[in-house]
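User: I'm curious whether this sequence folds into something compact or stays loose and floppy. Could you predict its structure so I can see for myself?
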Amino acid sequence: MGNTHARNPADPPHAAELSAYEAACMADADLRSFDSNLRTQTSHAIEALAAGVGVRALSFDSLREVTGCLMEMNQEVVRVILDCKQDIWGTQELFELVEEYFENSLQTLDFLSALDKCLKHARDSQLLILIALQQFEGEDRRAGGADRFARTLEELRNFKAAGDPFTKEFFRIFQAVYRNHVTMLEKLQLRKSKLDKKLRYLHAWRKVSSMIFAATFAVILICSVVAAAVAQPHVAGALAAAASIPVCSVGKWIDSLLKNYENAVKGQKETIVAMQVGTGLVISDLENIRVLVDRLEIEIQSMLQNAELAVEEGEVKIGVEEIKKKLSAFMKNIDQLGVQADNCSRDIRRARTVVLQRIIKSSNQ
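Assistant: Here's the prediction. I'll summarize afterward.
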């Protein structure tokens, strides 16, 4: 269909659009098939009109032929658009992912608040140990006696009573938060793959623009034939007006829609990537936190055992000496864990801001 129209000097305003349509047909097998079908239907309709003109009037059958042709062409375009509609405007999944992302970030901030309480508990325990060691230095210089290390033992009992700051509930919350982020990362990767596929095959959606252009041009061609065949002036005038529709504007309008779609997909992808980066950072921070917590747990349990050795079995000197060996690493790990918790909190808040900026940017496009 495109070749005939492209070479028609009587229609120079549409030459560029027809040339672009020809190129699109050459590049796409589906569009070539559509074009072939459209040409057949258009020729059929015009032949039916010619048969009606032969008897100097449009027959009911010829008009029905034209109507059927137009309906079929419109249905073909509608079918393609409907195939694309759910894919183009179905953004509920993205909305739910964004909601889940922000909910996960809030839960992680709650976890970090729980971690901060554990660190406060650990620092209190550290203070009890330091006091116990200070008491031990003074009491160790005294003469022997049943109550020689009374104050040292009292502080060690306080340390022992304080127990492990990292409870089973703490680890349960940690596992839930970590698992949520890992699951979120998987969902984001899946969504990103879908968006990448949309962008890779965006040229397929441009078939819609070419189809509508070709179908509209065919309709105008048929209307022109009808206008020439109908005797009544007012009918001919109406059909001639239909034939004057600026076809190129239809193609430009569809191209504009597709460009908006492409921008929307790119905006969604930017949002997904921002959430991926933020989620990946938090997962890395949580893994570092877990390593430091495990290390701190080992040191705490060891010092509690040494405190028990001193309090329950009376081996004060041995217990205190063992605690001294571990105290420096214990204090260092508390500080490192505090820094890592702050890093995680900062990464979460920064990522939330970036995601919000991406959403606002996408909404304004």
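Summary: Residues 189 and 276 are 8 Å apart (CA to CA). The chain has eleven helices and no strands.
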